[in-house]
Design a protein that fits this description.
Blueprint (H helix, E strand, L loop, with lengths): L7 H7 L2 E7 L6 H10 L10 H4 L5 H12 L5 H17 L2 E8 L1 H6 L4 H19 L2 E9 L4 H13 L5 E7 L11 H9 L3 E6 L6 H9 L4 E4 L7 H10 L2 E4 L1 H8 L9 H7 L2 E4 L11 H11 L4 H14 L4 H20 L4
Parallel strand pairs: 1-2, 2-3, 3-4, 4-5, 5-6, 6-7, 7-8
Helix pairs in contact: 1-14, 5-7, 8-9, 15-16
This protein binds zinc ion (ZN).
């Protein structure tokens, strides 16, 4: 038996983690964003100091800043740097495996070629794996505020430049007024080409979007999904089918629930028995990290040690890796988790 762990925060930091819901751009440190904009002589309108950069009143201002920050990320080295930095932070929180979203069309609109972007990210991923032992795959995400035609082009771009690190597609940006069904074609194309599929749904719109995501788009997991609690039939179905929800307490409490952590639907989802895998979405932009989102889930959403164990196993279930690897991970990680849990002073 090792040294006693005196607080839940230290415990949550130490447990092994799968990270299925994290956005590359949302994980850029403010200081890095400012340095890269300076390097490329890009001015960040409305933002002068790193401290001001990640201060915004609503999701639309947030997305505006998000797109602006992308203008300073241009060279292959820049992409390598931001991937390496976020994975270095992840490793400090014992994230062992991550599937990280990035938006090819955002960077291509800024004049960057897809190859520069993706190969830079792969450089950063490889360096982080060498230095910290963290493994990372990539999800190319559709910006749902743009056209379905652009999403089709994005998938064509992936097909023209296949990289084994890019294993799936996702869908993000603001959901309200941007329904998922119009993107059926890009999802069908990606599925046929062997990509795995996920999408942000019922984060800020009807639970119907979850059905669309599962049945029309063919997704095998749901990012966010909080409005599922409004439709018991959809909830029951997701529970019966073991659909994994990748939930991010801190960013969504801020954006959608007025910082009311205690009434965040994640509690209800957990109580109902849905498979939740916790993650941190856009950590520096919401002043959080992989451990802090779990601490908030413990403090406000009823997550106890057993729920974190389950969240870890749900993350393994939802991950896009082969079944033999998953079996080995489940066994080994559960042992590590249990050994840490016996050292926690309750
Ligand atoms: Zn997200």
């Amino acid at each position: 038996m090792g040294v006693r762990i005196v607080d839940i925060e230290a415990f949550l930091k130490a447990i092994p983690k799968v990270s299925l819901h994290l956005h590359l751009m949302g994980s850029v440190q403010a200081q890095t964003a400012v340095e890269l904009c300076k390097k490329h002589n890009v001015s960040l309108p409305d933002f002068d100091e790193p401290e001001d950069l990640y201060d915004y009143p609503d999701i639309y201002k947030f997305l505006h800043m998000y797109d602006n920050t992308a203008l300073g990320i241009i060279d292959r080295d820049d992409f390598a740097r931001i991937a390496y930095e976020t994975l270095t932070e992840a490793a400090e929180h014992n994230v062992r495996y991550r599937e990280m979203s990035f938006n090819p069309t955002t960077h291509m609109a800024a004049g960057v070629s897809y190859e520069t972007c993706v190969d830079g990210l792969i450089d950063g991923i490889n360096a982080a794996q060498t230095d910290h032992g963290v493994e990372c795959k990539l999800i190319a995400a559709v910006n749902r505020m743009e056209s379905p035609e652009l999403a089709v082009e994005m998938v064509e771009t992936l097909l023209a430049h296949p990289r084994e690190e890019v294993i799936g597609i996702g869908m993000d940006y603001a959901e309200a007024n941007f329904p998922p069904e119009v993107f059926w074609k890009s999802y069908r194309m990606a599925e046929r080409a062997g990509y795995r599929l996920t999408a942000h749904q019922a984060e800020d719109a009807s639970p119907r979007n979850i059905e669309t995501c599962l049945d029309l788009l063919g997704c095998d997991r749901v990012d966010h999904g909080y409005h599922v609690v409004e439709d018991e039939a959809v909830m029951r179905r997701c529970r019966d089918e073991g659909v994994v929800f990748t939930c991010t307490p801190v960013s969504t409490a801020w954006v959608y629930f007025n910082d009311d952590f205690d009434n965040h639907p994640i509690s209800q989802m957990r109580e109902f028995g849905l498979k939740i895998s916790l993650d941190c979405d856009d950590p520096p932009m919401f002043k959080t990290d992989p451990t802090n989102d779990m601490v908030m889930a413990h403090n406000h959403m009823g997550f106890e040690v057993e729920d974190f164990r389950q969240s870890m196993l749900n993350g393994i279930d939802g991950a896009w890796i082969g079944e033999p690897d998953k079996r080995a991970m489940r066994r080994q990680w559960a042992d590590e988790f249990d050994a840490l849990a016996t050292r926690l002073e309750q």
